[in-house]
What does this fold into?
Amino acid sequence: MDAQFLLPLIGGLGIGSLLTTVTHWYFLNRNEQKKRSFEEKKEAYVGLIDALYQLEVEFSHSNSKKYGLWEIRAVLVGSPEVVMCAKLMKKTEPGSAERKKTLDDLLEEMRKDLGVDTRELGKS
It folds into this structure.
């Protein structure tokens, strides 16, 4: 074997390995970011719903502060639609039809943001 044949073969293997490594790193990193984003959003949304429930059960200064903290966390990681619905929740009267519709909208937007299937919602 001469050098004209061997050098391109070795160089080609090196570039192929490098491309494979870079591609693998890119997809692994992207998947980790998506997974972390999903977990952060899920935690914020579950905390917000729990705080809202606690506020509905017992209106208190402590529960109101808890809701505010979870709302801020949802603002940090949530989609604009979730943020809008969360803010609208504060403007509705507890127990009203408007509150129920806003809560349904909030839950639907959370599901969309988390990538959870919403096709079966609202069907009996």
The helical segments are 3-57, 61-77, 80-89, 97-114. The two ends are 74 Å apart (CA to CA). Residues 3-114 form one domain. The chain has one domain: 3-114.
